[in-house]
Amino acid sequence: MVSRVIPVDVFDLVIFGGTGDLARRKILPGLYRRFVAGQMTSDSRIIGAARGELSDDAFRKLVAESIDEFVPKDRRDEAMITEFLSRLHYVAIDAKGEGGWDALKNMMRDGVVRAFYFSVAPALFGDIALRLKSHGVADDAARIVVEKPFGRDLATAKALNATLAQHFHETQIYRIDHYLGKETVQNLMAVRFANILFEPLWKAEYVDHVQITVAETVSVDGRGAYYDKSGAMRDMVQNHMMQLLCLIAMEPPYHFDPDAVRDEKLKVIRALDPVPQQDIVRGQYLAGGGQGGYLEHCENPASTTESYIALKVHVSNWRWKGTPFYLRTGKRLRARASEIAITFREPPHSIFDDAKGWRENVLVIRLQPDEGMNLMVMIKEPGPGGMRLMQVPLDMSFAGVLGDEAEDIPDAYERLIMDVIRGNQTLFMRGDEVEAAWAWTDPIIEGWNATGAKPQGYDAGSSGPEDALMLMHRDGRRWREIR
Ligand code: NAD
Fold first, then answer.
1. Residue 465 phi/psi, 5° resolution?
2. Which pTM does this prediction carry?
3. Is 255 annotated in the active site?
4. For 296, which of 133, 181, 266, 292 could close a Cys bridge (C-beta 3.0–4.6 Å)?
């Protein structure tokens, strides 16, 4: 397959928090990969900005170490690394002070794309936005990239949107949800909207239910006190899982255009029913496998924050009335696995009397660990023995088509940063989308806060709390295995 890397325009990208965890693990190694791929050309520059004093060379050394740690050995090339590092600079800036900003302004070049990645605590977003403008660092075409969490409820998200809007137009604001940058998530849109096969079946009449799972094996050990202020609903459901739900449930946009896509996603969020407390199961992992439980890790024995949540969600519109969406996510589960599974209904009539082995058609969209798509279909079991049915996966993943080149597919952060430079907002959340998602989330959280109910304990390494199984069983359904 021919490589289709299209170089992006020349840019100056400033990474606030350029020495932080996210920058070192994802953003900078990702940019190196785009440089090697030829997408970032050698006249572009990356400027790390953080509070500490650091020379350009010290910053380059830090980035070289990140590349060493986070880019696989067979993807590293010493000459390329040296060339890439020469594109890096550093400026010491305190987001809350005035020092360093004029130096940054003087570094900016005219006639190139200016992008500013806010890879710092959200409390600093407003300060940075303000000073980028007051010191004349950002021009009217500049783009800003903001990380999650975008608020912790509707009021804080609105306040943050209002603050950013004082300094930047909505078309300049790129709110990251890295799930949207995943190859498979975009493939989901291609499968839905570039084929005639699926769309006629994509509705309550033919879809029995949808399961969205984001399972993690990691605990919150080491960042428990921080996690305890959010919990699984805020950390995963309100943003990442909501975005996945939107892409499955939305109507076809009239065009693959940022606002057309985001208008349709917004309509889905607005169509979500409030979720009654009996359709929600929350859990906290227990000690096990030589590790402490959630209550120890979050350093708060009385915590009622959930490390697991499962909920049944209804999209109240013409297309989806009667098809539940089951969402679940949690820490310390059996496996690290994220997938969307769309389970279709039974054929209206079976012509096979003794059709043992019949199972529903399921379209499985796997986001991690191995991205791909499978459509589970029924075929005749080959060979003699009469008409016996068996279920086989129809592999619809890109990895098989691309072979070795699958390795060169940009990861979510890489793709999204390149989209920022291209000025394409399709895969970024718009302000009204984020607010609508919080407007749906807030009453759910208030609901359980009002009851003071404690989350149910679940075994480390399990599939979650018992009650989550019941949530499905009582509807005559079952969760797919987490593996
Ligand atoms: P971090 O604490 O590792 O790094 C923070 C960075 O901000 C450091 O470079 C620090 O020097 C800089 N900084 C702190 N105070 C500053 C100030 N007053 N002025 C200028 N710079 C200052 O944090 P992180 O884990 O890299 O997270 C950064 C952002 O990304 C946060 O909003 C976080 O919620 C978000 N995020 C992180 C991850 C992740 O995997 N780390 C994942 C998703 C989202």
1. -65, 150
2. 0.95
3. no
4. 292
Query: What count of residues does the chain have?
Result: 483
Nearest one of 364, 346, 353, 398 to 481, comparing CA atoms: 364
CA distances from 302 to 46, 230, 411, 459 (A): 45, 15, 39, 19
CA within 13 Å, CB half, 450:
8
Written as one string, the DSSP assignment of 422-451 is HT--TTSB-HHHHHHHHHHHHHHHHHHHHH
Query: Which residue, among 376, 327, 324, has the nearest Cα to 215 in the 3D structure?
Result: 327
Domains, in order of start, for the chain: 11-147 (3.40.50.720), 180-406+430-474 (3.30.360.10)
Distance 18 CA to ligand 1 centre (A): 8
Strands 88-92, 389-395: pairing kind: unpaired
Q: What would the pLDDT profile of 21-33 be if each residue is shown by its tens digit? A: 999 999 999 999 9
Phi, psi for 110 (deg, rounded to 5): -80, 155
| Residue whose structure tokens are 């699984």 | 232
Dist CA 82 CA 61 (whole Å): 10
Closest-CA residue, ligand 1 atom 38, reads 22
**pLDDT over 90 (residue 266):** yes
Pocket of ligand 1 (CB under 6 A): 16-23, 50-52, 93-96, 119-122, 124, 147-149
- Cα of first residue to Cα of last residue in the chain, in angstroms, is 31
Per-residue pLDDT of 429-463, as tens digits, reads 999 999 999 999 999 999 999 998 999 999 999 99
Among residues 167, 209, 240, 297, the one annotated as catalytic is: 240
Q: Whose CA is nearest to atom 41 of ligand 1?
A: 22
